[in-house]
Amino acid sequence: MALKDQNSVTMLCLFLLTLVQTAEAFDGGDAAALLLGATVTLVGICAFLGWYARKRNVICIKILFTLTQIRKTNFN
């Protein structure tokens, strides 16, 4: 039997997904792993954003450093 239209393929996939048994147990180890994974993911995202911001603003920091050096030499 050849499935030719998208609706019948979708319906077949949904029917097959209903046959899969779900997990019965959720204990403390699973909760700890979930919290640890969420924490590591959040810290990783923040670290990446910090790295990207520093990499992107290095030109601005060099310009500001140069301007402050020029200002210090003009006043002395």
TrEMBL record:
Coiled coil: none annotated. Pfam families: DUF4730. Residues 1-25 form the signal peptide. InterPro entries: DUF4730 (IPR031742). The chain crosses the membrane at residues 35-53. Keywords: Membrane, Signal, Transmembrane, Transmembrane helix. This is Si:dkey-112e7.2. It comes from Sinocyclocheilus anshuiensis.
